[in-house]
């Protein structure tokens, strides 16, 4: 099998001859991208001041001394790469065959609750050059079965590693949320705490962004967006490609080995009543001749917990998710929190 056959057919022209596929349009470059160092938080001794500043001025920070065993991180990366380089047709069947809540998706990170790519509206401008597996942590099966022996053992290793990585990353997310709530002086009962950040909503996505010939221009791996989560935690490889919007300029976040990147999502912005921000970001590879892998964890509020603030109408995460899905399907894009400001008419 040539490596190209492992990619979705819509990606293959971009990879082979650099021509953007019919649907893959190139986003205009807004500003010359520059490298940037985001604030660093030491998880072993959380500094309240640095954390406050990072959440308020950046919405993103790097986490060092996070305690996730490095061999676990590299094994998870290795097995994800191996599964993602299976032939496209096999990946499509990989989880369907075992009736697993895990799923394979490509072309967009906007998925429905079953983990399938959302059909996007006519105005959707492009296919994102990304594919991946979606893994809801609380629904991981106790074991995986599969007809093919070699794939069965790889799938089983993937499941075991994701489960273990999930335990570490959930612990980190919960501690960070507690620390961030303290910086906001939110006096939360344990009931409110789990309303705002419910461990069982945690999900992991492993992504692969294909290489593309330079003549393809600035192929976007993931278009500009904010995360809908409370907190997202990203483990990227050394290729780089994550870009953030800060003070109306795009900056490339320099990859730093063995660290994690934490970004705040829309729910944290609402919980903090806009004190903290959900950072706008995108993935755009500088070196388009190499592929990029990342592992992303997202955690959300309890579905029916009402989030009250002065900047938004009271809403639940269920309302938010339904609105995002309606917007993606009809307009091709997420509107997000703006739908919930007092002056915004709801669209649903
Ligand atoms: O893969 C990455 O580096 C970022 C992914 C991301 O932003 C997302 O899934 O929301
Ligand atoms: Fe994101």
From TrEMBL:
Family classification: Belongs to the iron/ascorbate-dependent oxidoreductase family.
PANTHER family reported for this sequence: 2-OXOGLUTARATE (2OG) AND FE(II)-DEPENDENT OXYGENASE SUPERFAMILY PROTEIN-RELATED
Organism, as annotated: Brassica campestris
UniProt keyword list: Iron, Metal-binding, Oxidoreductase
Alphabetized Pfam families for the sequence: 2OG-FeII_Oxy, DIOX_N
Gene Ontology terms describing biological process: gibberellin catabolic process
InterPro entries for the chain: DIOX_N (IPR026992), IPNS-like_FE2OG_OXY (IPR044861), IPNS-like_sf (IPR027443), Iron_ascorbate_oxido_reductase (IPR050231), Oxoglu/Fe-dep_dioxygenase_dom (IPR005123)
Entry annotated with the keyword Iron: yes
Gene Ontology molecular function terms on file: gibberellin 2-beta-dioxygenase activity; metal ion binding
Domain Fe2OG dioxygenase: 199-301
Protein name: Fe2OG dioxygenase domain-containing protein
């Amino acid at each position: 099998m040539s490596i190209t056959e492992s990619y979705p057919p819509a990606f293959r022209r971009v990879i082979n001859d650099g021509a953007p596929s019919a649907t893959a349009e190139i986003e205009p470059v807004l500003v010359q991208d520059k490298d940037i160092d985001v604030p660093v938080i030491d998880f072993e001794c959380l500094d309240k001041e640095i954390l406050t500043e990072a959440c308020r001025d950046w919405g993103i920070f790097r986490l060092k001394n996070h305690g996730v065993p490095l061999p676990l991180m590299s094994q998870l990366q290795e097995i994800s790469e191996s599964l993602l380089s299976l032939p496209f047709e096999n990946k499509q069947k990989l989880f369907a065959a075992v009736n697993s809540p895990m799923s394979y998706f490509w072309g967009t990170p906007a998925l429905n609750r079953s983990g399938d790519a959302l059909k996007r509206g006519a105005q959707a401008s492009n296919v994102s050059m990304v594919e991946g597996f979606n893994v809801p942590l609380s629904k991981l099966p106790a074991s995986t079965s599969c007809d093919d022996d070699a794939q069965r053992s790889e799938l089983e290793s993937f499941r075991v590693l994701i489960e273990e990585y999930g335990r570490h990353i959930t612990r980190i997310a919960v501690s960070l949320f507690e620390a961030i709530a303290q910086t906001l002086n939110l006096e939360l009962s344990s009931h409110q705490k789990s309303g705002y950040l419910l461990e069982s909503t945690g999900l992991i996505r492993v992504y692969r962004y294909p290489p593309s010939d330079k003549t393809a221009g600035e192929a976007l791996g993931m278009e500009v967006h904010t995360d809908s989560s409370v907190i997202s935690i990203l483990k990227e490889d050394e290729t780089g490609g994550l870009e953030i919007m800060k003070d109306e300029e795009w900056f490339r976040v320099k990859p730093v080995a063995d660290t994690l990147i934490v970004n705040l999502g829309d729910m944290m912005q609402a919980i903090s009543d806009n004190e903290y921000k959900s950072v706008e970001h995108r993935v755009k590879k500088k070196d388009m001749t190499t592929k990029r892998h990342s592992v992303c964890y997202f955690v959300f509020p309890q579905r029916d917990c009402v989030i009250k603030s002065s900047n938004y109408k009271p809403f639940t995460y269920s309302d938010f998710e339904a609105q995002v899905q309606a917007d993606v399907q009809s307009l091709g894009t997420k509107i997000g929190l703006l739908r919930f400001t007092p002056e915004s008419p709801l669209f649903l």
